[in-house]
Amino acid sequence: MIVKRIIPCLDVKDGRVVKGVNFVDLRDKGDPVTLAARYEEEGADEIVLLDISASIEGRKTMLNVVRDTASVLTIPLTVGGGIKGVDDISEILSSGADKVSINTAAVENPNMVSAAASEFGSQSIVVAIDAKKKGGNYMVYTYSGSVETNLDAVKWAKAVAELGAGEILLTSIDRDGTRLGYDIELTRLVAEAVNISVIASGGAGSLNHFYTVLTIGRADAALAAGVFHDGTIRISELKRYLISNGVEVRVL
Amino acid sequence: MKAVVVNYGVGNLFSIVSSLRRVGFDVDVKDSFNTIQRGYDLIVFPGVGTFKAVARYLRERADVFEDIRSRGVYFLGICLGMQIMFEYGFEGGLHSGLGWFKGYVDRLGTNLKLPHIGWSRIYAAENADKICEIFNDINGSYVYFIHSYAAYPADSTIVCMVSHYGTRFPALIARGNTVGTQFHPEKSGKVGLTFLATLYRWIRC
């Protein structure tokens, strides 16, 4: 029996949590450490921190955020954003993260995924895939959704699983921040193509969206940001809803 | 009460150190174990790295750890740190472990996705040694797992708790002053802290 996971995501810029729509138009949502602790209390199964700072100062601040967040959590912490090499990974893991999420660097240098997996173990390596529908296919985008690649998302997912990724964090750029629901078709295509866990992301707006992506979408975990930050959905309420609909999730 | 976390490689030791501190241990992190260490009540093998690398590190210091163990010091192995206490493992080829427990470590025999990442309930095992009763308060709780390999013990009485992921596997083992968990207590929320607090009280007695 697979116990599905609910994962709040904190997009962090210069030490603050922000949230945008379709990866742009950022708004301040508070302090990452306070939010992470609140989500653990409400029953979050893991926390994801994504560094979306562009500056060197922002990146340095991020390591402190990782350390401070890890200090208050007793659940797993994944950190992503701007990771370029094995040294970055080592720095983040020793600051208290359990897993790192690699996106652009994996596309530009796929060997980095296998190097990281053999050094730190597959269990600490998450590959993030940002996908957008183009014609009949889903294509992979890098640099926070701004650069189109010629990679097909499903094929790329298979490739990273082969290279040793332990998990895939799959975001629909079309749905991100829209609250129209997860991209069920994309999620299911990827989840059925690989033999590692898939975390669905982008578009959560209602309780039913979570239920659908975890059942029909075949996701192992569902990630969301906005609906948790503004209190539209409480994690405890979401978990009760999922259990009453026959989806096993951890209850406290 | 002093605990030392053995630093044999790369990865996150931060969480286990802070969890042990939260339940009352005074914690050091050490990578050098070439001489006999005195003054510690608990030695922790954390769950980071690969079987091959960690087993090599620990085998090179097997005499030191054997000596510490024979003097009644407690050991806690987490995930891989528990797995390397067995005789051998098949992760990345065949490698010998410390051999403190009879049996081996191999891939989870499941049809579900691997690695097994996430929360599963643990249950008290039948035929468990009496010592296992001290962990009864976490029976039925959800704990956090992240692994592709599991222990296959020759002696089932060392298994205190089991979990299920398309197959049944040992989640918590204990014998004498040595305890091992397949789950990560430092990642398992309040249940993980309860487990570590139980260990603390047990060692203090």
Could you name the CATH class of chain B? Alpha Beta
Low-confidence stretches of chain B: none
Biggest interface pair, residues each? A-B, 38 and 35 residues
SSE order of chain A, as H and E?
EEEHEHEHEHHEEEHEHEHEHH
Q: CATH superfamily membership of chain B, which one?
A: Class I glutamine amidotransferase (GATase) domain
The CATH topology label of chain A is TIM Barrel
Helical content band of chain A: 25-40%
Protein model, in words:
Chain A has 252 residues and is an alpha/beta fold. Chain A has a single domain (5-244), classed as Aldolase class I (TIM Barrel), CATH 3.20.20. Helices cover 38% and strands 29% of the residues of chain A. An 8-stranded parallel beta barrel of chain A has the order 1-4-5-6-7-10-11-12, surrounded by 7 helices. In chain A, helix 1 packs parallel to helix 2 (56-72) and helix 6 (153-163) runs parallel beside helix 7. Chain A is globular and about 45 Å long. The two termini of chain A are 18 Å apart. The model of chain A has no long low-confidence stretch (mean pLDDT 94). The longest helix of chain B is centred in the last third of the chain and has 16 residues, at 189-204. Chain B is globular and about 45 Å long. Chain B has one domain: Rossmann fold (3-Layer(aba) Sandwich), CATH 3.40.50.880. Chain B is an alpha/beta fold. In chain B, 23% of the residues lie in helices and 34% in strands. Chain B is built from 5 helices and 13 strands. At the A-B interface, helix 2, helix 3 and helix 5 of A face helix 1, strand 8, strand 9 and helix 5 of B.
